[in-house]
Amino acid sequence: MIINTAITAFLLASVCYLPPGKASAHPKEEIKGSLVIAGGSLGSSNKDIYESFIKLAGGVKKAKIGIVPAASGSLKSSKEFRADLVKYGVKEADIKILPISNHNFSDTDLDEKSWKNNVHSKAVVRQIEDLSAIWFVGGDQLRITDTLYDAKGKSTLALEAIWNVYRKGAVIGGTSAGAAIMSDVMIAGGDSLGGLKGKFTGKSESAKNKEYEPVRIEKGLGFFQYGIIDQHFDERGRLGRLVATAVNYEKQKKKYNAYGIDEDTALIVNNQEKTAEIASRGGVTVVDSSKAKEHKGKINNVSISLLSPGDKIDLKTKSFTIHSKKDATKGNEYHQFKPLEATGVLTSYGKLKPYLSYSLVDNSSTDSVKSYLYDSRGSGFSLTFSKTKQTNGFWGYQDGQKDDYSITNVKMDVAPVSLQFKTDKQAFKHYQESNFALPKRTERGTIKGNLLIAGGALGLSNEDVYKKFIELTKAGTDAKVGIISAASGSLSSSNAFKSDLLKYGLKEENIKILPISTHDFKGTLEDESSWKENRNRDGVAAEIKNLDAIWFVGGDQTYITEALFNPDQTESKALKAIWDVYKKGAVLGGTSAGAAIMSDVMLAGGGSLETLTKGFTDTYNGMEQQEGGPGYLERGLGFFQYGLIDQHFDNKARLGRLIATAHEKGDRNQLSYGIDEDTAIVVNNLKQKLEVVGRGGVTVIDLSKVNTDPKIKSGYKNILLSTIAPGDSVDLRTKGIHISPHKVRTKGSEYGDFEVAPHSGVLTEHGTLSKFLSYQLVDNSGEKEVKAYSFDKGKGVELTFRKTKKTDGFWGYKDGSKDDYSVVNAVLDITPIAVKNE
């Protein structure tokens, strides 16, 4: 890039600023020590990362660990990391918080600012030289480098001591800011939009356009000698800033890549073997800019790879070894659907890795997909991701039956765009209302049983959900459980769920796969299509009546209703038996398709943007319609009596289709619920209470105050949205939302104060709906409203999320120091628009 001379003058005033192509601070050398570089938001329960760090430090008996607190504003995170290490077996006496800082901490009475001089202290040097491991906590990475470099940018005695123990075999680790300092080129601030616009700086400065920040580049500590590191990567949509930084600041592009590490994930580096492995819960994005070209705002031919836990990198050859349990998708793609461009919160698989996995690499129907990143004026970039001959995908299961992808060598091209959004009241004049006839409501009387409804992709390790299901049976580990496999194409998911229940203490003889299906399963000798008549066999009904719990596995929800309703839509004997045990106290549960069947109106197919803007169809073409197209409704089984249910809500971005369905077919006096993956709602019918358990959240939609104009299709005003989290609950009688007591109210004490660019695609920060509302709107005093645009072929919708007097936000920590938000009564307006690319 070219920086004009006026800007260059003040950039070089920063002692540690690295102009493009500057040589590294430390020559490449043989190092015996290792690195554990965590992307931020490291969970206390993240066993893989903690145990890897301790093992590399010498094990619980030999480890001597020093914690550098310099990045943080308090000693809290250092003390918590020490407590975590003790929990994992390290002796507290062998863990020291090193007196290294350039500022005071907010939670002590000491003058830690004086610790700045300790970096020249021989006593501190001796303390460091006795260590087998050093950990840098998160906060502000500039505080670390300012502390460990002197005023001339030279290494202090303390930094040289850290280098010495690292060379001899110590492990160095860090999270968030403690990861950012690992490479020579340190990214100290800024975002993707600023980076792609070519805005770089070497000092703190106020951006002229406050919707994006220039990328601040400084000199890091250089422990990672194989390229540039970025962190909080997926959550904060930082691919754009890493690509721009790699193109402009990596001097040896053919030799080194750039690495973006997701939250709660680590890159573990073996310097002696010159390899790295991805560990734990997220992924690492690898940017290869060796063939990239930059010209007039365009960046072409960047190669990106997205690696998962267990994958390895050869840092010498830049080659990858994918986990052996994954199968290559090339030539054997699972999906065949035309993906929409990733344009905002209504895009299925709208975050970077899921979007490229499902919509591009494991999809035979397309060779390229597109997303956007722009400011509120529509000025920004189109991002095109393409398959090449070198592109490959790898798929397997993780944590039970959750999809786990790795992707190698997708081509990324960036080009400037200028989009214009204009209200178009006639944009969707051909919207088709649903012809689905609401089923007649049957009065069921008192229901003593409970429901556990999971949003899909339920992890085997999701202890809260499994234990709650078993607890609800009242018989506990002696419970008799029936599994209905009708939704699936095979018995694998039923057998897997049975295995999961055994691991949580149930008895094998008490778990039965019920012979209920209308189609044959793959991989079995029996023809299960012969089970069709079992729905009315007395023996099957009798078996059901002896159960304490029934579980519906995932797949295609229409198969479940087909298997349990008679052709004339009356209830089969099997369905009546399920209702009988449910009313008497049995628990009913299900995941994915097994969640969709729970309400009277069943959302059986359709994409979010297409349902909201095109309406509904009377035809269903199977699993392909799970990925897009107009909405398709059928009659559900009606076990959930309090509104509508949708599932896979976060990953498949189903806000639009749930709103459209609730508006046409819902009861305005009831709420509608979108359940995220690996998350469940627990419904207590006697108490009429709904509680959230698991790992994600639940979006609650209230249309009781909505305003619409019959002449404007897909236009809505005053939709109330709440996003609630595990521990939160809903009173189903009053519709009141109760927030977990560990959270504090953010209203009047917002953490953020900044302007927000629209949600525009896969590089939007905090890209899921709940995170976007939490970070960008409710816990941000700088905005009263934020926008998102979703569109296809020049037509779409503007989504305006607003705060009112009734909007409230709540924040706390979970699993260590991970942010945990709930939002109550944000307001959403939806306006049809025409979109023009200038």
Automatic annotation (TrEMBL):
Q: Which reaction(s) are listed as its catalytic activity?
A: [L-4-(L-arginin-2-N-yl)aspartate](n) + H2O = [L-4-(L-arginin-2-N-yl)aspartate](n-1) + L-4-(L-arginin-2-N-yl)aspartate
Q: What is its EC number?
A: 3.4.15.6
Q: What SUPFAM superfamilies does this protein's entry cite?
A: Class I glutamine amidotransferase-like
> Which molecular function terms from Gene Ontology are attached?
peptidyl-dipeptidase activity; serine-type peptidase activity
- UniProt KW keywords: Hydrolase, Protease, Serine protease
Gene Ontology process terms (BP): proteolysis
Which NCBIfam families does this UniProt record tie to the protein? cyanophycinase
Summarizing the function annotation, the protein's role is:
Exopeptidase that catalyzes the hydrolytic cleavage of multi-L-arginyl-poly-L-aspartic acid (cyanophycin; a water-insoluble reserve polymer) into aspartate-arginine dipeptides.
Would you tell me the protein name for this molecule?
Cyanophycinase
Q: Which organism does this sequence originate in?
A: Peribacillus simplex
